[in-house]
Amino acid sequence: xxxxxxxxxxxxxxxxxxxxxxxxxxxxxxxxxxxxxxxxxxxxxxxxxxxxxxxxxxxxxxxxxxxxxxxxxxxxxxxxxxxxxxxxxxxxxxxxxxxxxxxxxxxxxxxxxxxxxxxxxxxxxxxxxxxxxxxxxxxxxxxxxxxxxxxxxxxxxxxxxxxxxxxxxxxxxxxxxxxxxxxxxxxxxxxxxxxxxxxxxxxxxxxxxxxxxxxxxxxxxxxxxxxxxxxxxxxxxxxxxxxxxxxxxxxxxxxxxxxxxxxxxxxxxxxxxxxxxxxxxxxxxxxxxxxxxxxxxxxxxxxxxxxxxxxxxxxxxxxxxxxxxxxxxxxxxxxxxxxxxxxxxxxxxxxxxxxxxxxxxxxxxxxxxxxxxxxxxxxxxxxxxxxxxxxxxxxxxxxxxxxxxxxxxxxxxxxxxxxxxxxxxxxxxxxxxxxxxxxxxxxxxxxxxxxxxxxxxxxxxxxxxxxxxxxxxxxxxxxxxxxxxxxxxxxxxxxxxxxxxxxxxxxxxxxxxxxxxxxxxxxxxxxxxxxxxxxxxxxxxxxxxxxxxxxxxxxxxxxxxxxxxxxxxxxxxxxxxxxxxxxxxxxxxxxxxxxxxxxxxxxxxxxxxxxxxxxxxxxxxxxxxxxxxxxxxxxxxxxxxxxxxxxxxxxxxxxxxxxxxxxxxxxxxxxxxxxxxxxxxxxxxxxxxxxx
Length: 692
Ligand code: ATP
Ligand code: MG
Hints:
The protein is globular, with a radius of gyration of 27 Å. It is of the alpha/beta class and 692 residues long. The strands form four sheets. The protein has a six-stranded parallel sheet, sandwiched between helices. Helices cover 52% and strands 11% of the residues. It contains 31 helices and 16 strands. The structure holds adenosine-5'-triphosphate and magnesium ion.
């Protein structure tokens, strides 16, 4: 990457004229509308530097919003290079969601929350919906959850949802929505959607809070603006107020979150809501060679145009795009692995220069297996990490609660998994009581007032549970003021073993899941326990210290600070905004990319209801995103047969291959005659030969 500043310190060196305009423009709202790789994100980082270094903005008054945590940490990293030291740290560079958390923590009492309110993740939220619906029908649950989420993102309250519900299913969902909202209030908890919705509501209703935040956010920058939803747009408007000092950058051709309620209309809306809006277009692409860019332009030209855009690059023509037809997904995975190995030798580059992208999470399993067999290091994003697995989270919930009994979601999760006679009714009463008394759920259990709030039997179950947690806390050394003394407490390993035995977790797994699933989950629990015990032994940590350590690790995992030298495996969705020298796009088949709608694994009813054409257009944008991640070489593959639910299904190449202007059977490869294995062998032989 070139230096952000020229040696003379000029801020706009390394920018083209249009980018410079976008960075320097401060007379009002500004929209940068441009295709992939044209330097939109670079405009944002440069503009932050410009605001601080040249325009006298205090770093704490600048907020930049990104779509993912990863994008935020990457931007933070880039800006740190331009603004070293303290001023860089005072900037707010975060996702919409993290900004929402910050705002809510400060303004909690204005929205009827206690400051240490809990944040439920999608799993926690789904569990609540499951209890409300009293069903285990996964498809139904997910569909209700996504319907509620769409309502929330559209700023629609349950009462209004009940009014506008168009079908029996929607009316049911609206009723669940109402109980769900009430449940969350009782728990003093919010879900991910609330992190945007509640701040927007607050700033709308509360003039004082609005002024407070508007004078704090003196300049706002938004990346990937095309994927904002109604709620996020509202928040942007409210945060910037009448001064409207903001820069948004986006590309309508990369809008890939309509299924989650994002709306490209937000782009068009900016032009009408802000008549003085300055629109800047960027046309030079600095990422990809011409062949790749041309293929991307070809594909996207099949979509109706919202805004006219041209994109060119002077990085040379580049090598032909490879298209490979494979016999099975295993063959595809092995082939990709071997081709990457060979290419790494041939091109003398690093593992991290390669990315394998795919449409659906389930494709990663076969790819991972192949890479492991070939001993190719890889990292995976957009998938599930070990610490996100339900069984791991169950056990960690107990440990979190033992360490910090203010953690209400941990309390809820631990108290109800495995079931021990504590149901939603009991938790609801406890949540209401705790909310009124402004204490944690755990603390509330011990209060006398609870004796009026619950029947004796229900309270007994709660107190048994809380007493159990308390005993564990003492054994683990909590309550001992002296750390030295705490360290002399029982070894963590023994406490862990007793904990797992006492809650009967293994039996719970076998009662709840089929044998194979239960076994796999139990193995994960054993792995977690072994890891915890090993840590405790090696580093002499108490259980308390250990739990805090785990929380940190989880955060580090999510932060992904130092990228190891490894091939990147990623879903197309998670690859947005990123770039790689060499990209392998797997499973470019009809039914996978474009994805077949109905039995979509994500199971969105909206999705099925959407007209086919709209869906294909979104899939096409996803394809466009995938192609434009590649800088120097692009390789597509598709399988003639793919295993699906234990059956081999015959597949056709994706229509997008043809739309790119390519032949689905072509293998433009200098060494086409050799199998990848032979080629790899030949290359290795070459490398081990002494230099001439
Ligand atoms: P996407 O739409 O995929 O998010 P983008 O428009 O945000 O892409 P960037 O990621 O900002 O594009 O830039 C793409 C690449 O081009 C980056 O490696 C960036 O450093 C480089 N780049 C951007 N502008 C210039 C420039 N004026 N000169 C040289 N390189 C540039
Ligand atoms: Mg970008």
